[in-house]
Design goal:
The chain is an alpha/beta fold. Helix content is 42%, strand content 22%. It has 16 helices and 17 strands. The strands form four sheets. The protein has a nine-stranded mixed β-sheet, with helices on both faces. Strands 12-13-14 form a three-stranded antiparallel β-sheet, with no helix packed on it. Strands 15-17-16 form a three-stranded antiparallel β-sheet. About 3% of the residues have low confidence.
Length: 401
């Protein structure tokens, strides 16, 4: 590890009250009796891993899930205390707690968490319409969203994010606009607006043909409505799905998009340290056995090569309005950027991207097509490498296109 680089910590809390119909994250419902055993393992894992981060400053900590707030403020404070004791946490670190509205309405519990060091809350609002919430298996109501926001403000949290989902079953553009306006009326500092993805293996997948899901064009309209509404109410778009008031971008999530270092803890958690990337099994029992008894709990482990890292720079950088830079790319990866630049200029001509100084980034209409457009950039990168480095052609041809 590079001594000068900061580090983010992700702590996965795999418990929830009820599994949502669309959720593909690793989480368990009805397993409250396992929380203490899990916390014991988590504390042991954080402690034994700390020496690897001894020379690094932790500037973000993110408790995700699942539903971290379901763990209760006492357990959460104990975990954060362990982080504070074992790691070099900066004074201005961003420390985020994901919470569902039904488990975040006690302002006194939130106040205890605020005093312990948590300073950002991300609430899973998802919709302002109770019928929509029931349709996707959420256990909270819009009234509970309001109560949770009030509790967070009373507990002195001044950095609040709300998550919303568009493209829900039977959702219309008008209903989505009402959801957006209800969210901004709660005066959050940050909004995340995600298009519904129907993942194989979820209950929603099994009824996808009859669920009344909006089509691609309708989802595109909803996305552009989110961009326009956010801008109108003073939020700027800094990533495909994320909007913030100035200075309130999610510093932790930016680490993923800017190829910074982060360590994950818990079943299913991912880590990326320098050129090493690994993840833990999506299985609570195996994770517990791994931490407490030394059994294998690694799911994936790989060392990232220069070619793959350069591709990630393009894929992740173009998710943000910070975008990509010729000088950065050539300095970091010692590779020719001209073919990529030609493709980006074509995107500019079509209104899908803009050139801002020496950087390029997508417009909202470009973000809508980002998967296809990023694919074009990767093709340009591969073709240029093969042209200038014929000896690399066999290696490149093995890469997925």
């Amino acid at each position: 590890m590079n001594e000068s680089k900061p580090l983010g910590l992700y702590i996965h809390i795999p418990f929830c009250r009820q599994k949502c119909g669309y959720c593909d994250f690793y989480s368990l419902s009805g397993s409250d009796e396992r929380m203490d055993a899990y916390c014991k393992a988590l504390l042991a894992h954080l402690t034994e891993t700390a020496p690897q981060a001894a020379k690094h400053s932790v500037d973000t900590v993110y408790f995700g899930g699942g539903t971290p707030s379901l763990l209760g403020e006492k357990r959460l404070r104990e975990i954060l205390k362990c982080v504070d004791k074992r790691y070099r946490v900066t004074k201005d670190a961003e420390i985020t707690l994901e919470a569902n509205p039904d488990s975040a309405g006690d302002w006194k519990a939130l106040r205890a968490l605020r005093k312990a060091g948590f300073n950002r809350i991300s609430l899973g609002m998802q919709s302002a319409d109770d019928a929509e919430l029931r349709e996707i298996g959420r256990v909270h109501s819009m009234d509970q969203v309001r109560q949770a926001v009030d509790a967070a403000r009373k507990a002195r949290f001044d950095n609040l994010s709300l998550d919303l989902i568009y493209g829900l079953p039977h959702q219309t553009l008008e209903l989505w606009r009402r959801n957006l306006e209800a969210a901004v009326a709660l005066t959050p500092q940050h909004l995340s607006c995600y298009g519904l993805k129907v993942e194989e293996g979820t209950p929603l997948w099994d009824r996808r043909e009859t669920a009344g899901l909006p089509g691609d064009e309708e989802q595109a309209e909803m996305y552009l409505a989110a961009v326009e509404t956010a801008r109108r109410f003073g939020f700027f778009q800094y990533e495909i799905s994320n909007f913030a008031r100035l200075g309130y971008e999610s510093r932790h999530n930016l680490k993923y998009w800017q190829l910074d270092d982060y360590m994950g803890f818990g079943p299913g958690a991912h880590s990326c340290i320098g050129r090493t990337r690994y993840s833990y099994v999506r299985d609570l029992d195996r994770y517990l056995a791994g931490v407490l008894h030394g059994e294998d709990m690694i799911d994936e482990y790989e060392t990232i090569g220069d070619f793959e890292r350069a591709a990630e720079y393009l894929m992740l950088g173009m998710r943000t309005v910070h975008g990509v830079s010729r000088a950065e790319y050539e300095r970091l990866y010692r590779s020719d950027f001209s073919g990529i630049a030609q493709q980006l200029e074509e995107f500019v001509r079509r209104g899908w991207a803009v050139a801002d100084g020496e950087r390029w980034h997508f417009t909202p209409s470009g973000f809508l097509l980002s998967n296809v457009l990023i694919g074009k950039l990767l093709e340009a990168q591969t073709d240029r490498k093969a042209e200038h480095n014929p000896w690399m052609k066999p290696q490149i041809e093995k890469q997925p296109r």
